[in-house]
């Protein structure tokens, strides 16, 4: 969300699987570009702590639970109770022309989309796309 796109998406299924494998192994990079304020030291620290491979050391997985994550300085000013109750005000609400206004979404051309068929081999068979995990 900080970059405006999924950090786990590649150009195709194989690239996406490779990106996910690197993240699982603990290798990740912050994207270049975007709003500079989105990638300040505090936000990078928060994300790095959430992606620690060892759950015993991962932010939000210790004795303090999710409270440890909420206590991180990057989330200062956010009230977890308002978030949980879903009453936190959105930072930006797009102006709409009506209930079906889609003008703020990208145009999706299905004909230009690469279609990949994936199969599931069942619980006892390997799912080849995720075999690296």
CATH topology: Transferase(Phosphotransferase), domain 1
Number of helices: 4
> Class, according to the CATH hierarchy?
Mainly Alpha
Q: Which H/E pattern describes the elements?
A: HHHH
Low-confidence stretches: none
What quaternary form is this?
single chain
Helix content: 10-25%
**How big is the Rg?**
19 Å
**Biggest sheet details:** none
Distance from N terminus to C terminus (CA atoms, Å) equals 25 Å
Query: What is the residue-mean pLDDT, rounded to a whole number?
Result: 80
- Estimate what percentage of residues fall within beta strands: under 5%
Structural class comes to mainly alpha
What does this structure look like?
This protein is an all-alpha fold and 133 residues long. Helix content is 25%, strand content 0%. The protein has a single domain, classed as Transferase(Phosphotransferase) domain 1 (Transferase(Phosphotransferase), domain 1, Orthogonal Bundle), CATH 1.10.510.10. It is built from 4 helices and no strands. The longest helix is centred in the N-terminal third of the chain and has 13 residues, at 13-25. The two termini are 25 Å apart. The model has no long low-confidence stretch (mean pLDDT 80).
Question: What order do the helices and strands come in, and which of them pair?
Answer:
Layout: H1 13-25, H2 41-50, H3 66-70, H4 80-84
Quick rundown:
Keywords: ATP-binding, Kinase, Nucleotide-binding, Serine/threonine-protein kinase, Transferase. With 133 residues, this protein is mainly alpha-helical. The chain has helices at 13-25, 41-50, 66-70, 80-84.
């Amino acid at each position: 969300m900080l970059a405006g796109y999924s950090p786990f998406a590649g150009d195709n299924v194989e690239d996406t699987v490779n990106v996910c494998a690197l993240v699982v192994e603990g290798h990740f990079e912050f994207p270049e570009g975007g709003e500079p304020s989105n990638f300040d030291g505090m936000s990078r620290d928060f994300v790095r702590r959430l992606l620690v491979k060892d759950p015993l050391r991962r932010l939000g997985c210790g004795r303090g639970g999710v409270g440890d994550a909420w206590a991180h300085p990057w989330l200062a000013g956010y009230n977890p109770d308002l978030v949980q109750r879903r009453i936190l005000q959105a930072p930006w609400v797009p102006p709409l022309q009506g209930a079906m206004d889609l003008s703020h979404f990208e145009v999706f051309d299905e004909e230009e989309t690469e279609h990949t068929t994936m199969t599931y081999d069942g619980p006892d068979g390997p799912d080849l796309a995720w075999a690296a995990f």
